[in-house]
Design a protein that fits this description.
Helix 3 packs across helix 5 (100-128). It contains 27 helices and five strands. It starts with a helix and ends in a 15-residue tail after the last helix. By secondary structure, the protein is mainly alpha-helical. Strands 1-3-2-4-5 form a five-stranded parallel β-sheet. It has three domains: 2-229; 259-374, Fumarate Reductase Iron-sulfur Protein, Chain B, domain 2; 397-542, Rossmann fold. It is elongated, with a radius of gyration of 31 Å.
């Protein structure tokens, strides 16, 4: 009878879980496709390092240790769960047939049962007594966290209870030092009835825990491993924006307006958020009092999914909830425009959520489809369109630093190796193109950096070319503000210039130009070898082409 009852409960729990899981993940049916199957070896490495070994969590050591102990403890205790389930069908079942190895298993299980129990108690104390600011959240989330932590605590208590009763009944196999110690100090003889109570409670708690996950933020227990596997960490350059096909007439709108505009990875990200607050704590905009909260960008997306998923799936377009949208009903313009796109949120996230993809995607919708952007950007866009730079400078001003540089070289008796590409056969003489950038050519202070680097190239005898007023903004500013159309105009124009002069090798002093030219331009069909000036100077030093004058002893490390 007991076996039949347990089988009924087990099958019911499994079926209910798959029903809940299916309902939770139905929204993926309307998501956009995205290929994340390439470079499987690196994805496996990421999964082992980040998901299984919890490496990113240890950036905050205390919290990382607590979480890792609970996570690893559950992995170790999987064998306990399997033993308990099988005992319903095989009396006193255990893995003792593995011989002495079983002793190692039981010792490890017992020690981890204790560490998980202690870690849970500390986590409860930390979350509700001495709460870090990043963990201060809505009441619903606090209750959810408390339920999970208490649930895990009860699972550990019933594990110890089962072990203690087994030890007292002399039916325990293996070595369990913690349970044996507790059995000695707890008075009373062993009771088979008490053992069965613990056994039933333990198994029901496990099955209940499994079925609670699809309704909890702790769904990340299921989704974090695949989310880490499908992240592009160490596969793609960080925070790269993939180009849009602006000529695709089948596209209803550009950017992200609502959840149906996300790829499946974007929806998986929203389900994976642990609400740990590390992204928000790292956000410079949030630190300065701006409304932006990267955590809420993700959790509000999840809330939008929860509110509207069935209406999207069933295409109930007349429903008032369907008529709402992610922007601005769940995420406001003020939040989106506060973002500096620095990527700190993505870097800090322990479950590899890609916040910036969604922030820039929503900006793109607002800019390109609604013309809804801060009024200050009107001047910026006007300057970009008219002058090819963010500022109101005549494009001819890009040549001014060259004149100053040549005069300074004559004064300082430096033999300039600058070659203008516009000169006859100029492109055949150069070794590398120096991409100066808007700030490098037009900003009064930054021009000094430009001239200094040009002098280093000259002293090293590097024949370098410059584009002068043929150089335009790289498009980075417009892209990150959501104006993909304007950005692509610049990118295509610059690529045409590169092809005109057969440019393949570039050095730049601008970090934004460096990122765009090196990481984003190749997605538009051009292969460039791009150096940051610090990299190129290091290369010259290693090749002994440039030896700086020193007034003291140099210590090499």
């Amino acid at each position: 009878m007991e076996t039949i009852l347990f089988t009924f409960i087990l099958i019911s729990a499994i079926l209910f879980f798959f029903r809940s899981f299916s309902r939770t993940t139905q929204i993926f049916k309307i998501s956009k496709p995205e290929d994340r199957s390439y470079n499987k070896l690196q994805r496996i490495k990421n999964t082992i390092s980040i998901a299984l070994l919890q490496s990113k969590l240890f950036k905050k050591k205390f919290a990382g240790i607590l979480h890792a102990l609970i996570f690893w403890g559950f992995l170790v205790l999987l064998l306990v769960i399997i033993e308990d389930f099988l005992e319903a069908y095989i009396n006193n079942f255990s893995f003792s047939f593995t011989g002495k190895f079983y002793n190692l298993i039981t010792i490890t299980q017992d020690l981890f049962s204790l560490t998980v129990t202690v870690a849970v108690l500390i986590s409860l104390f930390r979350r509700y007594i001495f709460t870090p600011s990043r963990l201060k959240t809505e009441r619903e989330s606090k209750i959810d966290a408390a339920i999970i932590l208490v649930w895990i605590f009860l699972i550990m208590i019933t594990t110890f209870g089962s072990n203690i009763e087994r030890i007292k009944l002399n039916t325990s196999e293996g070595i369990r030092p913690i349970s044996e110690f507790l059995a000695r100090i707890i008075s009373g003889d062993g009771s088979y009835e008490m053992y069965k109570i613990y056994w039933w409670c333990h198994n029901i708690l496990i099955l209940g825990f499994l079925n609670y996950l699809p309704y909890s933020k702790h769904f990340h227990i299921i989704s974090s491993v695949p989310n880490t596997f499908f992240s592009n960490y160490r596969i793609e350059p960080k925070n790269v924006i993939n180009p849009l096909n602006l000529e695709d007439e089948t596209v209803q709108h550009f950017g992200i307006k609502d959840i149906k505009d996300f790829t499946w990875k974007g929806l998986l990200d929203s389900y994976t958020c642990t609400e740990c607050g590390r992204c928000t704590e790292a956000c410079p905009a949030n630190k300065t009092g701006k409304k932006l909260n990267p955590k809420l960008i993700i959790t509000n997306t999840r809330k939008r999914i929860s509110d509207s998923a069935m209406f999207f799936i069933n295409k109930e377009e007349t429903n008032p909830i369907y008529k709402k949208s992610l922007v601005p009903n769940y995420t406001t313009q003020e939040e989106l425009w506060a973002c500096t796109t620095c990527g700190a949120c993505t870097e800090e996230c322990p479950v590899m959520i890609e916040h910036l993809n969604y922030i820039t995607g929503m900006r793109m919708y607002l800019t390109m489809m609604e013309s809804d952007f801060p009024s200050e950007l009107n001047t910026l866009y006007k300057n970009l369109e008219n002058n090819g730079s963010p500022w109101a400078f005549d494009p001819e001003e890009r040549n001014r630093w060259i004149t100053e540089f040549i005069l300074e070289c004559e004064t300082e008796r430096i033999r300039s190796s600058l070659i203008k590409l516009s000169e006859p056969e100029g492109k055949d003489k150069i070794e590398i193109i120096y991409w100066v950038g808007c700030a490098g050519a037009l900003d009064t202070r930054y021009v000094n950096v430009t001239k200094s680097f040009a002098k280093i190239l000259s002293k090293a005898g590097v024949r370098f070319g410059v584009l002068g007023n043929e150089e335009k903004c790289n498009g980075d500013t417009a892209r990150r503000l959501g104006n993909e159309y304007l950005a692509q105009e610049f990118i295509k124009a610059n690529i045409e210039t590169f092809k005109k002069y057969s440019i393949k090798k570039i050095v730049t002093t601008c970090p934004h130009c460096y990122n765009s030219l090196k990481n984003e331009y190749p997605k538009f069909g051009i292969d460039l070898e791009v150096y940051h000036h610090s990299e190129y100077i290091n290369k010259l030093l290693n090749e002994r082409k440039f030896i700086p004058k020193t007034s003291g002893k140099i210590t090499e490390i």
